[in-house]
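FAQ: What does a ligand-bound record look like?

Like this one, built around pyridoxal-5'-phosphate:
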Amino acid sequence: MKSNISEKIFVTQPSLPPLADFIPYLEKIWENKWLTNCGEFHKEFEQKLAEYLGVKYVSLFTNGMIALQVGMQALRITGEVITTPFTFAATTHAIHWNNCTPVFCDIEPDTFTLDPEKVESLITPKTTAIMPVHVYGNPCQHEKLQKIANTYGLKLFYDAAHVFGVRKNNTAVCSWGDLSMLSFHATKVFNTFEGGALVTNDESLKKRIDFLKNFGFADELTVVAPGSNGKMDEFRAAFGLLQLERVDGEIAKRKAAAEKYRKELADISGIRMLYDLPGVKHNYAYFPILIDAEKFGMSRDALYEKLKQNNIFSRRYFFPLYSDFPTYRGLPSAAPANLPTATKVAAGILCLPLYAEITETELQHIIKTVRSAK
Ligand SMILES: *Cc1c(COP(=O)(O)O)cnc(C)c1O
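The answer part, i.e. the structure of the complex:
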């Protein structure tokens, strides 16, 4: 074990299988000479992934952003879309790229997910969909959101990028709503370098998605819609199959590290952590802490800098809010006064490093640095 930390500790570290394990897959691809367009590995990965997640239909994508954009097209979402400002760029930008207007709704103070109590007052005749985010792997209040969607005839499309493998009362969180998007980006719990998927229970929707991710081709001569190109290639589908065998072990290691943080940081005043929710099997994708500058005796940004001086690269996910960026801040719903909880959370949030291979030495160094910061 290293006795002193001289290497940089980043907020995450991608999880990779032993290289030798991937070679046989590559040999198969070289042998088949079938590189993309729904090949053997694509089909197998789609099926195995649906089985693993416990969902009906999966459509693989080249990344999560394209999946979001295509998903909105598949659901024919137009006009205004109620969403959260406390998310990654992809959610809001996908709405923008579909010529829709994001309508920002505040979040809940406990889970940082979209506050269902605040959704209804934002609905107008132009609203066609709600796009919530299961941020940090915390499931949204699905029943309440689905009820609103049903009452007003809105689509419910989840950004499920953070809930790979997360289950609530033994159902897959990514099976909720009309559609869910998963991301397999290098920084996520489950990665295929880049990658993503759409998940649905509706067979005809799955079919439409598969046309749309392949330029709208239904067959050689029939183009049914102005599609995009979002297909996952064979290289990454094969890699996904290999990663699927390892992901449970990776989540278990993440859980152990998260529990250590929780135990060792519990007594520090001014630091709030998120804990496991009842009935939820978590994936420990992130380790966010919320700093109350007054009680902690130091601001979030000062702690971020202090960690950096000690070679610890934490991240201020998600700050600033997307409603604060130039593209969106002119929207009436972007006014901070409409988003008091999101504004407060964004000002105090900090994600500490968490990944499967984080070492005991690294964890102790981070914990010690946080404890001695103020
Ligand atoms: C990672 C992520 C996405 C999708 O990102 P890609 O890099 O395009 O796969 C979307 N939404 C959220 C909240 C994310 O964290």
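Follow-up question: can I read anything off the structure? Yes, for example: The mean pLDDT is 97.
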